[in-house]
Amino acid sequence: GENVEQHPSTLSVQEGDSAVIKCTYSDSASNYFPWYKQELGKRPQLIIDIRSNVGEKKDQRIAVTLNKTAKHFSLHITETQPEDSAVYFCAANVDFGNEKLTFGTGTRLTIIP
Amino acid sequence: DVKVTQSSRYLVKRTGEKVFLECVQDMDHENMFWYRQDPGLGLRLIYFSYDVKMKEKGDIPEGYSVSREKKERFSLILESASTNQTSMYLCASSLLGTSEGNEQFFGPGTRLTVL
Question: Which among B110, B111, B94, B90 is positioned nearest to B102, based on CA atoms?
Fold first, then answer.
């Protein structure tokens, strides 16, 4: 089955700086790569996703890049703010038409004021 | 606005008890999922269902079963609870997509402690 590795497990960034979280996946058939954010005590929520026919997608201060050849994708957060502090999960979906996701182990991002 | 609810936020059970965790979604989603979340291990899929009475094993189904008698409700059952099943349990739902992937909407979670 699919295996998703996520790094780093913890990340501290000065407010205003950028943060990058990286994920690799094992199954070359994977075709959908979402990112979820989970604030303390809250439920995970989708913040951005990318599909296999796109190399990069941006939404305001967050962006995701995908390299299918290398089987890795990354989340980039620019101009970080205190409300960006959370746990971030990457995921990959391998079955076409089947929404089963394999999640990474998460990155705890802390923004230092 | 999608709403996914879970029957309990906190639950304490004893070893050997049969435990039922209930999840209800109100957006007519075909897919429903049960995950457990443990520190350092992320979200691991226990079971999922893409239709009423249909179920498929996820990555860690041992010790669990599920039931989906109605489209809006997906139940997770611990037949005989054990201490290693102490965890946060998250339910999620999504539409059955025709293209690659659809957003999963999560419930608030049930923190289960097995003594």
Answer: B94
Does residue A32 contact residue B100 with C-beta atoms inside 8 Å?
A: yes
Residue A64 main-chain phi, psi, to 5 deg: -130, 135
Closest chain A residue to the Cα of B4, Cα to Cα: A43
pLDDT tens profile B52-109: 988 999 999 999 999 999 999 999 999 999 999 999 999 999 987 655 567 899 999 9
- Strands B73-78 and A62-67, how do they pair? unpaired
Rounded to an integer, what distance in angstroms lies between the CA atom of residue B76 and that of residue B20?
A: 6
Q: What are the structure tokens assigned to B4, written together?
A: 């996914």
User: HSE on the CB side for A52, CA within 13 Å?
Assistant: 19
| The pair of three-digit structure tokens given for residue A36, joined into one six-digit string | 């979820």
Beta bridge partners of B57: B47
A67-109 pLDDT, tens per residue? 999 999 999 999 999 999 999 999 998 765 567 899 999 999 9
Sort out which chain B residues have CB atoms less than 8 A from A102's CB and list them: 45, 59
Residues of A in contact with B96 (CB under 8 A): 97, 99
- Is the sign of the CA dihedral A63, B104, A84, A102 positive or negative? negative
Query: Could you tell me if B16 lies within 8 Å of chain A, comparing CB atoms?
Result: no
Q: In what order do the strands lie in the sheet with B73-78?
A: B4-6, B19-25, B73-78, B64-70
Per-residue model confidence as pLDDT tens digits over A47-68: 999 987 789 999 999 999 999 9
